[in-house]
């Protein structure tokens, strides 16, 4: 976090003015008492934007969000864990709409301003009676942001949440965020979910543009296993209660908001990669000197996605041949006589050939719980950073030993 | 194997007339006495063709093969295991050429007709003195085909080899083949290698075309971990000693040769997938009803490449939500209201919705050492088959616990 611009504060999504949350255990998950239903509501309608999975088998709630966000406005979201409402056909779509109606009825909102998300098992209809009872049971409070971050978890070992405070037009503006998951993070389940709130006033078109750009550089650059989910959703709600002049590309402090948003998403993305199934290490891959940004993205992602290199990271083995192979297979433009590879601060390759580096230093650079690989292709100005994790027995156990 | 057209015979690459092979342990691999050098020679110059890795970090021997095969002729190949001769720069390229010269000198061949392959550790120069002594030590015999199939192995648990016999122009024609590896199959190593021999007379252009087509449907449709190697090589040598009229697209028995070649490559591809690192099950994914063949290929490969589904296969868990997710993420055109999924003979989904199938039957269809998934997209005529394997602790162990 760039401490100069932002201050970290508590309660994540309910830190901005006018946002309240509530959670309950309504029995969707088989484990009794585990929270599986959460609602986030703004006191006033918000400018809203979203990004979603590009899967061709996307879940019903994703379709509902995409439909409703065409208007660029929203005021609430309801989230359940334990059931993905995916591969559920017309009934599933009807149930997703019904979830939003329940929230609208309970809290006196326009149903067209209510969004929904689901994460969990694919191919089962939602238990609507339990959800209906759950919604009636939920009480909203601005002190429940942290509870919200916990209720949306599936195999996450810890919640991922943050809130920042900064100034726009001499008003104190707050931005809060929570995420769960990382790629396909749960057996037969799915889904990265992310909810962002701000009390800044923001023009919708610019908000959508900035969200998409920030997601491209952060959430779209993390991977655990390369599996894309049917339910991935990232939503941002801006209710304007801070009273600033609406942010847009011409606002003199647009860059402050942009940097806060990017810092927040980068933090949350890294936390998701670090908490990947079975992960013991966070891997960061920096690529520079690529012919284009697209090439840098290909190269960086290819290395985080290589199971062989992920295994080397698990074993703290500076086995750079696997980086070379992943780089070669990535599809990025590459000259075998110009690329450099570093692990941590130790340069292993220069101009495509191994240096006589210190093996112990290279090993030492792999031993911590964060491993950083840097590639310089020396072909242009393209840069990118991707995050991933190691591949361990823990991943196999979580995903093999599952029983319905 | 289609028994009507072909008969299986012994000695793989030396089964066709006029091919001899020899192997030795020259000390490239650290384990003393393990064979690591192999040579295959035809008595007469051959029409030859090849397909290679598309990696941007391809190894020196791949460059040598690609250069020499421009002439469409070859007579021999030398293969070492234990060192990939990759990321070795100008010196590596010089060493690769030198390997071919050693074979030419030893066996009285034109060096421009000698090809070479390497598989093993990336980033080390070849021990040329050991290779020189090894070449001098090798004796060629038509009884050594099976030895050849063993000498090129790295982490393979068993050799993959086959030979077929069939008739062209009333001549008995033989076709032999060996492979090693499967994707990136060895720690810090690489490489699928395949060598095919035939005594059929074949026109070069048609041979190259047929090889490329057969590889596209077989070797390019297998995966273990999605990692492409720097050294992948598939070579075919046709020496014409069977005395048939040269095969080309207009030859009345072109289809016989095509089917023999395809059957052989499919057999070898399946054997490689079955022997993937840590694999306990062969996975076959059949896709039909796709809008195009390209779409079918995307869909089939996406399922074999999903680590989550590979873990489900390991656990014999008919967890079809992971198939749905992989299918959705594949990029193939898909209608959520039309696709069917089968595991073995058990239909799990019809028109995108789960059937009330028998859970025990679905589980039973996963229990054997071969699991077959069939997807019907009901959108067109495109079909494809991909092969893969499960993902187990064995894979993690082989690739994490490695030490240089």
Describe the structure.
Chains A, B: The record marks 190-191 as: Cleavage. Chains A, B: The record marks 119-120 as: Involved in the stabilization of negative charge on the oxyanion by the formation of the oxyanion hole. Chains A, B: Substrate binds at residues 154, 180, 191, 277, 399. Chains A, B: Belongs to the ArgJ family. 2 copies of one chain form a homodimer. Chain A has helices spanning 60-68, 89-107, 128-137, 145-151, 204-217, 254-274, 293-304, 307-314, 321-329, 359-367, 393-400; strands at residues 7-8, 19-24, 37-52, 73-83, 114-121, 160-168, 171-180, 193-198, 233-238, 282-290, 340-343, 346-350, 353-354, 370-376, 382-389. Chain A is α+β, with helices and mostly antiparallel strands. Chain A has 2 domains: 7-274, 4-Layer Sandwich (L-amino peptidase D-ALA esterase/amidase), CATH 3.60.70; 282-400, Roll (Ubiquitin-like (UB roll)), CATH 3.10.20.340. In chain A, the strands form 2 sheets. In chain A, strands 1, 2, 3, 4, 5, 6, 7, 8 and 9 form a 9-stranded mixed β-sheet that branches. In chain A, strands 13-12-11-14-10-15 form a 6-stranded mixed β-sheet. In chain A, strand 6 and strand 7 form a beta hairpin. In chain A, helix 1 (60-68) crosses helix 2 (89-107) and helix 7 (293-304) crosses helix 9 (321-329). The longest helix of chain A has 21 residues, at 254-274. Chain A is globular. Chains A and B meet through helix 8, helix 9, strand 13 and helix 11 of A and helix 8, helix 9, strand 13 and helix 11 of B.
């Amino acid at each position: 976090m760039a401490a100069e611009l932002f201050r970290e504060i508590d309660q994540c999504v309910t830190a901005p003015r006018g946002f309240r949350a509530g959670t309950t255990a309504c029995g969707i998950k088989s484990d009794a008492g585990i929270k599986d239903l959460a609602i986030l509501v703004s006191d006033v309608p918000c400018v809203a934007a979203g990004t979603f999975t590009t899967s061709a088998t996307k879940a019903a709630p994703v379709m509902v969000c995409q439909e409703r966000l065409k208007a660029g406005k929203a005021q609430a979201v309801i989230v359940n864990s334990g059931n993905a409402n995916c591969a559920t056909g017309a009934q599933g779509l009807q149930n997703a709409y019904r979830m939003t109606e329940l929230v609208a009825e309970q809290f006196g909102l326009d149903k067209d301003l209510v969004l929904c998300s689901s994460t969990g098992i694919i191919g089962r209809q939602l238990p609507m009676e339990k959800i209906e009872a759950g919604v009636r049971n939920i009480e909203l409070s601005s002190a429940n942001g942290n509870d919200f971050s916990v209720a949306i978890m599936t195999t996450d070992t810890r919640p991922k949440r943050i809130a920042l405070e900064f100034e726009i037009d001499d008003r104190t503006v707050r931005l809060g965020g929570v995420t769960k998951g990382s790629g396909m993070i749960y057996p037969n389940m799915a889904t990265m979910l992310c909810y962002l709130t701000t009390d800044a006033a923001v023009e919708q078109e610019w908000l959508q543009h900035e969200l998409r750009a920030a997601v491209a550089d952060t959430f779209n650059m993390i991977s655990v296993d390369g599996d894309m989910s049917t339910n991935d959703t990232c939503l941002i709600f801006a209710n304007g209660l801070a009273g600033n002049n609406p942010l847009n590309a011409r606002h003199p402090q647009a860059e402050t908001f942009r940097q806060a948003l990017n810092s927040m998403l980068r933090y949350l993305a890294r936390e998701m990669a670090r908490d990947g199934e079975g992960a013991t290490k966070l891997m960061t891959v920096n690529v520079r000197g690529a012919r284009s940004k697209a090439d840098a993205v290909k190269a960086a992602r290819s290395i985080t996605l290589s199971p062989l290199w992920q295994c080397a990271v698990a074993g703290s083995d500076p086995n750079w041949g696997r980086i070379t192979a992943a780089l070669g297979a990535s599809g990025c433009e590459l000259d075998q006589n110009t690329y450099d590879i570093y692990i941590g601060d130790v340069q292993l390759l220069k101009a495509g050939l191994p240096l006589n580096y210190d093996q112990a230093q290279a090993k030492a650079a792999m031993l911590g719980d964060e491993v950083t690989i840097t590639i310089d292709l020396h072909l242009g100005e393209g840069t990118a950073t991707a995050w991933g994790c190691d591949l361990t027995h823990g991943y196999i156990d979580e995903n093999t030993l599952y029983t319905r």
